[in-house]
Design brief:
Largest sheet: none
Number of helices: 2
Oligomer: single chain
Strand content: under 5%
Distance between the termini: 41 Å
Length: 69
């Protein structure tokens, strides 16, 4: 039996919100492939990617700061 992966410590409620937004935009695009929905999904995906990248970069700095204290 395969065990479920644990989320990283940097993964919080805000990240879950971005994942949910991205999922909703994709479902809307799958149901209706108009250009406005394509633009919407691209915007939401870009915002989520930037957020996750920033979280990933900040996390080691915060962890290191806590270890120093």
């Amino acid at each position: 039996m395969q065990e479920l992966k644990q989320h990283k410590a940097r993964f919080d409620e805000e990240c879950l919100g971005y994942l949910d937004q991205r999922k909703q935009a994709k479902m809307k695009w799958v149901q209706d492939t108009r250009q406005s929905n394509v633009n919407n999904i691209n915007t939401v995906r870009c915002e989520a990617k930037v957020h996750f990248r920033n979280k990933k970069q900040v996390y080691p700095k915060v962890k290191l700061r806590n270890l120093k204290q």
